[in-house]
Write a structure and sequence with these properties.
- Strands 1, 2, 3, 4, 5, 6, 7, 8, 9 and 10 form a 10-stranded antiparallel beta sheet that branches.
- 13% of the residues lie in helices and 40% in strands.
- With 124 residues, it is mainly beta.
- The termini are far apart.
- The chain has one domain: Lipocalin.
């Protein structure tokens, strides 16, 4: 087994609330959106929910293995916030997720080429 394969051995930790730390390599700060984007993953029910910085979001999880993660269609409320850049980027990034790394209190979501889309940290 490679080091990357062993990083996600306890996928039970995936079922948590995660707070956005960085998006496309840019550290998130509270001034970037109305609310802090979060993602709650329910591994057993293969679903997710949270907030994209403006709207509440939810949906199903199509694929979930020790290394693979693919979110289903994203549904959200339709509020219009003053600045929609984080909201739009967060949703677009979720639609591209195919892999993840789970290490300690950090969840890294990656695209089909294993490029980092976002990093989230477990909410205490």
């Amino acid at each position: 087994m490679t080091k990357e394969q062993t990083q996600n051995t306890d996928i039970a930790q995936l079922s948590n609330v995660w707070k956005l730390h960085s998006l496309h390599g840019v550290d998130y700060s509270d001034e970037m959106s109305q609310k802090h984007p979060t993602l709650q993953i329910d591994r057993q029910n293969k679903s997710f929910s949270g907030n994209d910085g403006c709207n509440n979001i939810h949906g199903g999880i199509e694929i979930l293995t020790d290394t693979d993660l693919k979110f289903g269609i994203l549904a959200s409320t339709k509020m219009m916030c003053e600045d929609m850049r984080i909201t739009n980027a967060f949703g677009q990034a979720l639609s591209k997720v195919e892999y993840y790394k789970l290490k300690e209190l950090k969840l890294t979501l990656q695209d089909k080429d294993h490029n980092e889309l976002m990093v989230l940290r477990k909410v205490d």
